[in-house]
Specification:
By secondary structure, this protein is α/β, with parallel strands linked by helices. It has helices spanning 16-21, 36-52, 63-75, 80-85, 94-99, 109-123, 136-142, 146-163, 181-189, and strands spanning 28-33, 56-61, 89-93, 102-103, 106-107, 130-134, 166-172, 193-194. It has a single domain, classed as P-loop containing nucleotide triphosphate hydrolases (Rossmann fold, 3-Layer(aba) Sandwich). The protein is 50% helix and 18% strand. Strands 3-2-6-7-1-8 form a six-stranded parallel β-sheet, sandwiched between helices. The chain has a two-stranded antiparallel ribbon with strand order 4-5.
Length: 195
């Protein structure tokens, strides 16, 4: 990974609230994880912290991670149903959302922008700040589509900067099986922090 990027340890359950509270509105964080619980602990802190601060949390994840996150949010005292009906929590399937803007195995910039702009319009309708989490890049990476992964990260980064919302991406280390050095450097360069 690039040595100039700020690297930080994944927050523990106790420090997650403070960690995510320090994230700036246009921050773009990547987490590489070995253990699902580490990811889900961080994700629960990120999403619940946003919802409890009256922000909107957009989660674009796999069905398994969304189901586990919903369970953990309820355990953390979040009324998931109410947050969804108030547009403070928007949960989408990563594969379905990805299909909305992929053309010839690459993210189409206009389709991506239209998709994300529509989500942000819904999320900010009441003037709320937004935090987003996405696993679409991890799906592309796991399929060996490094060019598509890097392109999507840079599209996210540009959108994040121009629309002032924080973005959290996650990659399982198990998906880093080929020689990923060059693409991994590009992925890290598209983020403001790497966990």
């Amino acid at each position: 990974m690039n040595s100039f990027l700020p690297r930080i340890k994944a927050p523990t359950s106790a420090s997650a609230q403070i960690f995510w509270g320090e994230i700036a509105p246009s921050e773009h964080v990547a987490q590489f994880y070995e253990n699902e619980n580490v990811l889900l602990d961080a994700l629960t802190g990120y999403v619940s912290g946003g919802i409890k601060a009256d922000e909107c949390a957009i989660v674009i994840a796999t069905p398994e991670h969304r189901a586990e996150l919903h369970k953990r949010l309820r355990e953390a005292g979040v009324d998931v149903w109410r947050a969804q009906t108030e547009n403070r929590y928007i949960s989408l399937d990563a594969e379905t959302t990805l299909a909305r803007f992929m053309v010839d195995r690459l993210p189409d910039e206009k389709l991506f922008t239209d998709c994300v702009a529509s989500l942000l319009q819904q999320a900010t309708a009441d003037g709320r700040r937004v935090r987003a989490f996405g696993e679409m890049v991890a799906l592309l990476w796991a399929r060996g589509e490094a060019a598509a992964t890097v392109r999507l990260e840079f599209l996210w980064q540009a959108f994040c900067q121009s629309h002032a919302f924080s973005l959290f991406c996650a990659y399982p280390k198990a998906g880093l099986t080929d020689d990923p050095t060059r693409s991994l450097a590009h992925i890290c360069a598209a983020h403001s922090r790497v966990v």
